[in-house]
Design a protein that fits this description.
Uridine Diphospho-n-acetylenolpyruvylglucosamine Reductase, domain 2; Uridine Diphospho-n-acetylenolpyruvylglucosamine Reductase, domain 3; Alpha-Beta Plaits; 18 strands; 20% strand; Oxid_FAD_bind_N; flavoprotein; FAD
């Protein structure tokens, strides 16, 4: 790989851009930070010729115009926590980082909205909403690092989609810089606005291939006044589906999370990671037990707490559950979530592994998990896998690995063929919440028709005819 050019040998357009935006805004050649060379997809680090770090929309527009005139590709970057290569540059590209476009511009209590800059970390958005007496519902494990612009560009999901929807459901307005530098400002605050095409949805979920998000108007909700949670053991997946129906009927709009862990996942987190189970029954007797974390958010603890407990007690009386534990404190709730979030520790106990994010019809998930586990073991000698996910919103995660194989040696291509081949057979999607980027581009046709992909390419060509904004990603 050739070395990036030194500042003195930098292209003229970068020198001019640096003079216009300031030295801190344009890092050239050897000044390019290591973090901007890759994202969490862990592909081979690249060498962008520069990192441009504007402080406002005008700076983004200027950068896009300069790169377009020079014919240099641009990749937008937020918190760089993506898992599919969507924010990874290629050698010779310019990385356009939102890291200095941070802050809360306005909180409007009357419209229950917050206007923020795209580089603002998700956790900062959540905290600002809470301090103002509101709740921003999007939540995921990378909350402290990921940027809200990246969350929207990938249409992030997270833990509470079953109640609040995906990221696109939490956005009312958007400001975007198009590939030619044009600024489209549509910072709408109204829940109802049917004046023509709802253009924000072109850019939410497009992974920075159609435009660069600079500011957004977020939809806020009332702050929950109480949270109830229970960890349940069930005899099989059929009982899980019935429990999901009972939760929707019995808890209604209070239901905020429904996390499912298959027995193989449960064994890893309780026996190998070492997270303590609050259940009396540590592992069941038939090998088919499935574990569910149910969470509900209410507005009145005196009413909603007893309601949640009565709902759970009736299920126990009816024999729907094998075992259950109800959180009595915030610490209990955190302990329950620690079981679900223990997948972050898998590298330390399993070694190198490959994680997958797929979507499936809820009723088919158990059949998929069983067939996939068997197919991986048959196709790849020694391959093991575990299954878990949000389930209530149709999202399954799985982790596959061959013990003892080091970094870069896991047979990912063979795993992909098995996992995504079965996804197509079951009528699912190869990406439920992580996007496509470059890592899943090969498999897009397993989830989208030829006509859908052709329309995606038509939109890309219309907005970016020179193909300079994040080229080669998604389609």
């Amino acid at each position: 790989m050739a070395d990036a050019p030194s500042t003195n040998a930098a292209p003229a357009f970068l020198v001019a851009l640096r003079e216009a935006l300031g030295a801190a805004a344009v890092l050239i050649g050897p000044d390019v930070p290591e973090r901007n060379r890759n994202d969490w997809s862990m592909q081979q680090p690249a060498r962008p010729i520069a990192v441009v770090r504007p402080v406002d929309t005008a700076g983004v527009s200027m950068a896009m115009k300069a790169c377009r005139a020079a014919g240099v590709p641009v990749v937008p970057q937020g918190g760089l926590t993506g898992l599919c290569g969507g924010s990874r540059p290629e050698d010779g590209w310019v990385a356009l980082s939102m890291e200095r476009m941070v802050g809360i511009e306005e909180i409007d209590p009357a419209s229950s909205t917050m206007t923020v800059w795209a580089g603002t970390p998700l956790e900062l958005v959540q905290r600002a909403a809470a301090e103002a007496g509101f709740y921003f519902a999007l939540d995921l494990g990378a909350r402290g690092s990921c940027a809200i612009g990246g969350n929207l560009s990938t249409n992030a999901g997270g833990n509470r989609v079953i109640r609040y929807g995906m990221a696109r459901e939490l956005v009312l307005g958007i400001e975007v810089v198009l590939p030619d530098g044009t600024v489209m400002t549509s910072l709408n605050k109204m829940l109802k606005n049917n004046a023509g095409y709802d253009l924000k949805h072109l850019f939410i979920g497009s992974e920075g291939t159609l435009g660069v998000i600079t500011r957004v108007v977020l939809r806020l909700h009332a702050q929950p006044q109480c949270t109830m949670s229970a960890l349940c053991a069930l005899p099989d997946y059929e009982a899980v589906v019935r429990l999901l129906g009972e939760a929707r009927r019995g808890l209604g709009p209070l239901l905020s999370a429904f996390e499912v862990m298959w027995p193989d996942y449960w064994d890893v987190v309780t026996k190998r990671v070492g997270v303590r189970s609050p259940l009396q029954q540590q592992t069941g007797g038939n090998g088919k037990e499935v574990y569910v974390l149910v969470e509900a958010q209410g507005t009145d603890e005196a009413i909603d707490g007893p309601r949640f407990e009565r709902w759970l007690e009736k299920l126990m009386e009816d024999g729907a559950l094998t075992d259950a534990a109800v959180a009595q404190s915030v610490a209990d709730t955190q302990a329950f979530w620690a079981l679900r979030d223990a997948c972050a520790e898998f590298v330390s106990v399993l070694g190198q592994n490959i994680s997958y994010d797929i979507g499936l019809p809820v009723k088919s998930m158990a059949d998929y998990a069983a067939r996939c586990k068997a197919a991986l073991a048959e196709r790849i000698p020694g391959c093991d896998s575990v299954y878990y996910g949000h389930i209530g919103d149709g999202n399954m995660h799985l982790v596959a690995w061959v013990p003892g194989m080091g970094p870069g040696l896991q047979p990912k291509e063979q795993m992909d063929e098995v996992i995504y081949g079965l996804v197509r057979e079951f009528g699912g999607t190869v990406s439920a919440e992580h996007g496509i980027g470059t890592a899943k581009k090969k498999w897009l046709g397993h989830a989208r028709s030829e006509e859908e992909i052709a329309l995606m390419r038509l939109l890309k060509g219309a907005l970016d005819p020179l193909g300079l904004l994040n080229p080669g990603k998604v389609v």
